[in-house]
Each structure stands twice: as structure tokens, then as C-alpha cells.
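User: I'm curious whether this sequence folds into something compact or stays loose and floppy. Could you predict its structure so I can see for myself?
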Amino acid sequence: MARLSNFLFVLSLICILPLYLCQQSYGGKLNPGYYAHSCPQAGEIVRSVVAQAVARETRMAASLMRLHFHDCFVQGCDGSLLLDSSGRIVSEKSSNPNSKSARGFEVVDQIKAQLEKQCPGTVSCADILTLAARDSSVLTGGPSWMVPLGRRDSRSASLSGSNNNIPAPNNTFQTILSKFNRQGLDVTDLVALSGSHTIGFSRCTSFRQRLYNQSGNGRPDMTLEQSFAANLRQRCPRSGGDQNLSVLDIVSAAKFDNSYFKNLIENMGLLNSDQVLFSSNDKSRDLVKKYAEDQGEFFEQFAESMIKMGNISPLTGSSGEIRKDCRKINS
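Assistant: Here's the prediction. I'll summarize afterward.
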């Protein structure tokens, strides 16, 4: 009888465990199986639209990742960045970090339109951004991860939050770390998440200071590798050409890998906010070296840090709403 009882107990654990894993909560609020019954096609719809967009323009992968980052650092991961200005809403799209640079909104619109056809009023815009960021990593050769879901959309935006919370290209290391710390992220998250700059481009206006007037004394940043700097000056003159683009990773701008960290060791980080990870702090320097040596370590930490960032102050339960159109709150 005792053996039978033990067998039944073990059997009950075997039956319950898969259900637990499927419904496991991340941070006690979100879980990857949130839409398993209400919209089982959600993940595939997002993946399909993102794949088409990246096939048309590889740069779009970096742009979609950036949208997720810039959304989560303002009011949490709530889709506030997607709102256009209207009525009492002053859009975050006009902030200094986003103006003339945030892009990919049309891709989000396409995803939302398809989701509304399949599962009306079910999948949030905030979750679309989170899924699209993961898929952008995978499509360019980077890591995959289980995306915790169940965020709801905000009914407000914060222009001041966007201007103040998102690190700027010319911030000091300590300022950048402080902005990450305020979101519950540490130096390991900072270095790993900065590794997303292994893909994509940046505008001349974001790194011109390094080329011509790094410290306000009319001299360039002498830590910048000189032949690299000379090439950048051809694309980014002292005046004009603000929107001219240069790759963030000179080695493999379209491939998600660890060459970004190798570039930092060679003093070939494009942005000041990149290079200071190697030049300004012992712990971050050690992490840069580790990820440069071991791509697997970088991928593992990047996935972990992306999940952590995606958990910043989500709206859940009855908070917020599920927008029908990601650009405006429901009337």
C-alpha cells in the first residue's frame, strides 16, 4: 500500500510539472503561456511580420530592439512609446532620444492589425514590442529566450521621462549606470544589453562630439582608434550631415555576435556610451573581456538581461488597457 501511495504521489508530480512549467510566472506577474488559449497564434504572427520586415531591411532588427529598450525605460514596459500626440497625450516620439531616430512603428502597426483580425482586443502593444525584440535577435543570429507575457498598455506617455531616463550617447559611465540602476538593472545588465549594438547604425549627431570636440576644448577623443576615427570623419563632417549613418559594429553590422566587445578592446566603439564600458570601470571592463572571449556567455547573459528588462514595471491585471491601435488609447 505504501508503494502504491508513493507511486501515485510521483505520478501526480509528473502530471503537474509540465503544467507548472508552462504557466511559470516571471517576476510573479508575467508568464510565457499567457496567450496559450486566448491567442495561440500570437507568437507566430509577430515572428512572421518581423521576419518579412528584416528580410526587406536588416537594419529593422536593431530598430525594433531599440523600441523595446526605449519603451521599458519610461514608465516601464507599457507601450507608451508607441502613442502619437493627441489630446492630453504628448508623444515620447518627439523626445531627444527618439526624434528622427526611433523607427519601426509601421512594423508594429502591421503586427497589431493582424493580431486584431485573429484575436481582437487580446494582445497588448507592449507584448508585441517584447516579442519583436526577441525575434529580431534570433533573425540576426542572436540568442532566443522564452518571453514572459501578459503586459497591458498604458493610457499615458511621458516626454520628460523619455528625455531624462534613457541614456544618451555622450553620457559618462556613471550616469549611464545610474540610469540602469533606477530601472533595477545592474552593471552586468548594462554591459550585456549594450551588446545589442552588435547590429544597427547610429547617426552622425550621436558621435560627432568624439570626432571634433570631446571635452569642450576643440579636440577629438584621443582614445578613439585613429584610422577608425579618420574613416568616421569622412561620413560625419564637423557641421552638416547630422542624419548620416555609420555602423555600430564595424566588423559585422548585420550579424548578432560578440564582435562589438572585441571592437571595444581595440578602442573602436562608435559611441562614447559604448567605449566607456571598457575604459571607465574595472567591472564593466572585465565583462567586456569575458564576452569578447566567449560568445556563449554573452548570449546567455543577454537573454537573461532582456527578460529582466522586460519585467520593468509592467501593467497587469486590470491596470491599463489592451489598445486596438498601438498609436492611440482606446476611446
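Summary: Residues 2-23 form the longest helix (22 residues). The radius of gyration is 21 Å.
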